[in-house]
């Protein structure tokens, strides 16, 4: 029996060219949509809870007795992207009376996460009027909605550069609870990236 007879063609499923192209197109779109997720699962990049020391600037930038707002910048890596000098937050650098004495404070108010501003007496949160002394300690002499002091960040001086370990902390709770070393992405030291 000849395989090209009409009765044999009727029993086999009919795949016309347009159906085959449509099936190939849908399969291709599905694979393209799933590919990034599959590649991220196989190569997720850097863990997001790893902190690294971030340079804040030359020690000479922070004269004795000064309070300086510093934007924290680092190289961020997530999945396939790597962005250099990305702003990831800000800190207050409070220089002590003697050269080389520093305190590095988070600018984030522990009450609800607003950005604090510096005033003559210390720091104030403009959102709900939380007040902090110059060393970041919560001012208890006035009604204060903040549940804790401003968060103090680890820091070190290496050569002529001040570094800090930038970490975000949960707001609205009395204790310091880290929410990740960037909740954004992992950092690399700028000196390693350069």
What does this structure look like?
With 194 residues, this protein is α+β, with helices and mostly antiparallel strands. It has 2 domains: 6-42; 53-193, Rieske Iron-sulfur Protein, CATH 2.102.10. It is 19% helix and 34% strand. The protein contains 3 helices and 13 strands. The protein has helices at residues 6-11, 17-42, 190-193, and strands at 53-58, 67-78, 81-95, 102-106, 117-119, 122-124, 131-133, 152-153, 155-158, 161-165, 168-169, 178-180, 186-188. The strands form 4 sheets. It has a 5-stranded antiparallel β-sheet. A 3-stranded antiparallel β-sheet has the order 1-10-9, with no helix packed on it. The chain has a 3-stranded antiparallel β-sheet with strand order 5-6-7, with no helix packed on it. The longest helix is centred in the N-terminal third of the chain and has 26 residues, at 17-42. It is elongated. It starts with 5 loop residues before the first helix and ends with a helix.
Write a concise synopsis of the structure shown:
This protein has three helices and 13 strands. By secondary structure, the chain is an alpha+beta fold.
- Give the N-terminus to C-terminus distance in angstroms: 75 Å
Number of domains: 2
Order of helices and strands: HHEEEEEEEEEEEEEH
Q: Indicate the radius of gyration in whole angstroms.
A: 28 Å
Number of continuous helical runs: 3
The major beta sheet can be summarized as:
5 strands, antiparallel
CATH architecture assignment name of the largest domain = 3-layer Sandwich
Shape: elongated
Level-1 CATH class name of the largest domain: Mainly Beta
CATH fold call of the largest domain = Rieske Iron-sulfur Protein
């Amino acid at each position: 029996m000849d395989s090209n007879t009409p009765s044999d063609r009727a029993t086999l499923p009919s795949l016309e060219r347009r159906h085959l192209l449509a099936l190939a197109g849908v399969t291709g779109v599905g694979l393209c949509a799933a590919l990034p997720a599959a590649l991220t699962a196989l190569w997720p990049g850097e863990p997001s809870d790893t902190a690294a020391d971030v340079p804040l600037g030359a020690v000479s930038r922070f004269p004795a007795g000064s309070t300086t707002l510093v934007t924290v910048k680092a190289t961020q890596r997530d999945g396939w992207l790597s962005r250099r000098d990305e702003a990831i937050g800000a800190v207050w650098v409070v220089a002590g009376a003697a050269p080389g004495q520093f305190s590095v404070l988070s600018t984030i108010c522990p009450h609800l996460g607003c950005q604090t501003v510096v005033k003559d007496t210390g720091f104030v949160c403009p959102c709900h009027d939380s007040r902090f002394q110059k060393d970041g300690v919560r001012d208890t002499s006035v009604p204060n909605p903040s549940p804790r002091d401003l968060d103090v960040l680890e820091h070190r001086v290496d050569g002529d550069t001040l570094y800090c370990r930038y970490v975000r902390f949960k707001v609205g709770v009395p204790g310091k609870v880290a929410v990740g070393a960037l909740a954004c992405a992992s950092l690399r030291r700028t000196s390693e990236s350069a």
